[in-house]
Amino acid sequence: MKRIRIKEVLKTTPNNQTVVVKGWVRTFRNSQFIALNDGSTASNLQVVVDFENTPEALLKRITTGAALSITGVLIASLGKGQAVEVKATSFEILGDSDAERYVLQPKKHSLEFLREVAHLRFRTNTFGAVFRVRNSLAFAIHQFFNERGFVYIHTPIVTSSDAEGAGEMFRVTTLDVNNPPRQEDGRIDFSQDFFGKSTNLTVSGQLEGELAAMAFGDIYTFGPTFRAENSNTTRHLAEFWMIEPEMAFYDLNDNMDLAEELLKYVIQYALTHHAEDLELLSQRLLEEEKQKPQAERSELSLLEKLQFCLANNFERVTYTEAISILRESNHNKKKKFNYLINEWGADLQSEHERYLVEKHFKKPVILTDYPKAIKAFYMRQNDDGKTVRAMDILFPGIGEIVGGSQREERLENLVTRMNEMNIPTHELEWYLDTRRFGACPHAGFGLGFERLVLFVTGMTNIRDVIPFPRTPKNCEF
User: Fold this and answer.
1) Is the pTM of this model over 0.85?
2) Which among 43, 44, 4 has a CA at the least distance from the CA of 21?
């Protein structure tokens, strides 16, 4: 017989039908009741073993973590907590689990401990829920763009350009790092490297995405990006995934509309398809919040936070208006911000972004028209000469979740800005060609996938929403 996933078994009306289930033992009580889980759901299936007619040596091998194949009859459960159970007629142990060495015994484990055994943490309820939700969010993103006729573009992971102009990149090389070839002036001779030039891991697929948008109209990328920032925080990773749509003939308002629509779409998808997982994660967050001082606790539960974003139109505010609000706030006047707002031009911190969302507007916020001095070279300059057509979307509990802009389509303005920022134009001639041949207004944004997963799952450390986190001094697996 073909194996049935436990998620489907639990939804099946019992009629004494024979089923085959396979999974891993979570608990085994009284030498009779197996809680079996196969990863398809947070719920376990209770399997009842005829312990009186099962050899004791076999019963002793039913330990937490062991993999089992069970054939049995599906019946209505007499116990509490489940509607159905399987009365085993036969079972096979596919893989033993040494009870003395297996670290995930049936008890509560801290997230810090589980990060130390990240190769096993998928097997816990919390991380099972997190990564099922992550999977669905990725699917929903592809579905959203596919329904709207966008073309999915695979942009390069190895690149010779720095899209952000930040310079914090991971170098890719095949040269002997202990004795690299050098030019006469002592600099490393990258002409002898694999690609014949200096190359790095990408920080963004945006610039290449713009090339495709100038042919297809609407495109998106969804892939890994890398930042060599020494940021050991709960919100930063060295390797993370980005969704970056680019749209020809879009202005900033079109860009904001699409981003808001995307966020609401994927949040609704998660709520519709993962009610059980999100309820489990909501309860986990509630328990975590109880450990905090009252003043630091969130006013909204996880599910309320998600509904909050669906129920409200995002407030659209200029950076200049936001600075005025923050500067005049009691929080600023009473010096409750770690970074006080004194003047226009300040780069907003997460605490400022969260204040605007959670305290002032009480809804998601889109900030627009930032000072050009704190934004990237490719953003369209406003007529005031001070600001650019940028936009950031701010969410409760997390701050910035999306960053984007209308792009500078005017060649002369773009070249002038690149020169001001010391970005060598000769290295980006291919990019400038999009402004020379058929330039048009266009826009795009970047959505950090892990920050989206962090928000939807209610987890508080970004290392807990990516399977194998890459952070400073940490590259396991």
Assistant:
1) yes
2) 4
